[in-house]
Write a structure and sequence with these properties.
five-stranded antiparallel sheet
């Protein structure tokens, strides 16, 4: 069971834009990592764009399950995990991250922010904390 990506986005008018993201692409071949990360960014934006305000959904994309939560204020979170990762845990994580993000980052920054300008450093910590370690045999 594995988490690959955790993203915070803003669903504004007319497009969705990425505010902050964390990735774990360590299980992929070194030469594939940047394209896998691009795929996850694009997929997160696309799923958030297609989800209505105030909704939660899980979407299968290739061998991944993408869990999206779009709040009524337009703030959205996407977790990309493997098929075995528990759905309930993903939505609990999204709730926690979006609540904390909305408290720490001004709503004015949501409109024009980007991963380079938004100072919110907790995503990497959450991604590793919620990673399920499989015992080595």
């Amino acid at each position: 069971m594995r988490l690959y990506s955790l993203s915070v986005l803003y669903k504004g008018d007319p497009k969705v834009h990425l505010l902050k993201a964390a990735y774990d692409v360590s299980t992929f071949n070194f030469f594939q990592r940047s394209s896998v990360q691009e795929f996850m960014t694009f997929t997160s934006q696309l799923i958030a764009e297609r989800s209505p305000l105030g909704s939660r959904a899980s979407v299968k994309e290739q061998e991944y399950l993408c869990h999206v939560y779009v709040r009524n204020d337009g703030l959205a979170g996407v977790v990309i995990a493997d098929n075995e990762y528990p759905q309930r845990v993903c939505f609990t994580l999204l709730d926690k991250v979006l609540d904390e993000f909305s408290r720490q980052v001004s709503k004015m920054d949501w409109l024009s922010g980007s991963p380079a300008t938004i100072s919110y450093s907790a995503l990497d910590g959450y991604l590793s904390k919620y990673q399920v370690q499989t015992p080595k045999t």
